[in-house]
């Protein structure tokens, strides 16, 4: 006897992509995610391509993955896609130590973050 399959939690006109283990702090990644929230896919791609932030390149790959998911898996029209949500979460934090004066130690935290991008097909009214 198998279990019943869990129903999908995403809606029909929605596509999702996640980027994990991005080597930056969640706070810095959120600044880039703010730039693309609520914008059309074409405009978001342009803003990420010409952004001076280092993380923008990795967010662009996640956005392109979400676009590919929308086209191939969910049969959505690429021209009418909008970035509905782009949210950031914490991931691993590597802890490193640096010797300081008088036998003490300085702690260094190297954070990682993750981003989730949800695209939705906007209705043409």
From TrEMBL:
Q: Which CDD domains match?
A: Ribosomal_L22
Question: Per its UniProt record, what Gene3D superfamilies does this chain match?
Answer: Ribosomal protein L22/L17
Any matching Pfam family: Ribosomal_L22
Q: Which GO terms describe its cellular component?
A: cytosolic large ribosomal subunit
A single Gene Ontology molecular function, please? Answer: structural constituent of ribosome
Q: Where is this region: Disordered?
A: 1-20
Cite the entry's keywords alphabetically: Ribonucleoprotein, Ribosomal protein, RNA-binding, rRNA-binding
The record's family statement is: Belongs to the universal ribosomal protein uL22 family.
What does the function comment of this entry state? Answer: This protein binds specifically to 23S rRNA; its binding is stimulated by other ribosomal proteins, e.g., L4, L17, and L20. It is important during the early stages of 50S assembly. It makes multiple contacts with different domains of the 23S rRNA in the assembled 50S subunit and ribosome.
Q: What's the name of the protein?
A: Large ribosomal subunit protein uL22
Protein species of origin: Parvularcula mediterranea
Supply the gene name.
rplV
